[in-house]
What does this fold into?
Amino acid sequence: MALSNSQYNAIMREYEQQQVRNRHDQEARIARVYERIPQIQELDVDTGARAAACARRILGGDAGARHTLREELEDIREQKRILLAAAGFPEDYMELRYRCPDCKDTGYVDGKHCHCFEQARISVLYAQSNIREVLERENFETLSYTYYDDSHVVPGIGVSELEYMKLVIRQCRDFAEHFPDRGKNILFTGSTGVGKTFLTNCIARCLIERYKSVIYLSSQDLFEVLSRYRFGREAEEGVGDTYHYILDCDMLIIDDLGTELNNAFVSSQLFYCINERISRGHGTVISTNLSMGMLRDTYSDRVTSRIMSHYTTIPLYGPDIRLMKNGINT
It folds into this structure.
């Protein structure tokens, strides 16, 4: 999942363009303020004059010039705050605004890639595969309740399949829209075709739109990356970068856990991945056809214990929707 030079340059050009847009937006806001409040333009001109005068005094040996200038500029800022408030403008109306306040639309924080850069990188890589197209089709806006029965009561729950799914959708939307404040981890369980993958796609799309870094992998692809890294093949096709992104991205989505070829290595790596992401405070969504008991039998008590103590488990019920779409009765 490494970027090519051209892909990296394209992302950085977008940051540069965003910075230009930010400055143009700021200039337009300043022009509106000057038109409405000419006194502020006069104060800004006065600020420049005072700064120039201070520089001359410093060159002339005036040791107190900087202190005097700070006091004068603070007085000017206070006058501007009062004038802006009186005209109904926010205090920061004339300041630069950023799409990503963390990196100020540079892509870097303290010399490291910002989370928004990581999401841009992932978006570029997704665009090369079919996942972007999938997320355009499968999201909260395109979700339909057509295939859920409004008369069949889910055993042990006391509501119909339709009402239960409405509750689940509200819970998932709330999770995605407020992540990470309303929980970080979800385990979807249920038989084939009940909507687990669709829901993970809905969550992924929402998080990507919020500039969260999301990595979406089938369980087979996940363990392939972990295996290649652990056995010293991290230099192949950016495996090392992908491995670290798996541990550090805001949200890791593991689809169809249990469909991979399981062995002791897979169980140990699943525990390490889950435990490490919990320790780092990152989120994980897992979908599986396995029940909690089957997860314990397939992997280990350690894995199951971590999931039970740190994940919200959401079981899904109903018929195989894919078969119903194809006109096959279930």
Notes: The radius of gyration is 27 Å. Residues 258 and 294 are 9 Å apart (CA to CA). The chain is about 60% helix and 10% strand.
